[in-house]
Amino acid sequence: MDALWMVWNKRAAFAEVARVLRPGGRFVFSTWEPSYLDHAGMLGRAGFTVTSREEADRWLERQLEVYRRILADSVALEKELGPGVSVLLAEARDTPATLPDTPRVIVSATRN
Fold this sequence. Notes:
The protein is an alpha+beta fold. It has helices at about 10-20, 40-45, 60-70, 75-80, 85-95, and strands at about 25-30, 50-55, 105-110. Helix content is about 45%, strand content about 20%. Helix 1 packs across helix 2 (about 40-45) and helix 3 packs across helix 5 (about 85-95). The two termini are about 20 Å apart.
């Protein structure tokens, strides 16, 4: 759930998932999908058939609300997280502008 976007080598990740799944096994994940990424193509090359791809319900509205709350509670978060909170606050400030072109999708694929 929402971890794939942090994987640098997605082709290798898909190949490893294909290796451990038996034929007919299902791989389901959610991620953000910028226009330059072709998840379906990478999955196909790894031995999967995409059975569904859909945008998560109200994903943009919900993600913007998460960032709004992070910024609104920045003082409390800094007390709890310490200096590392700067990364979270930078994401909450900078990412909303890129979100409309980066839909959050849920993909289901079957291992061939």
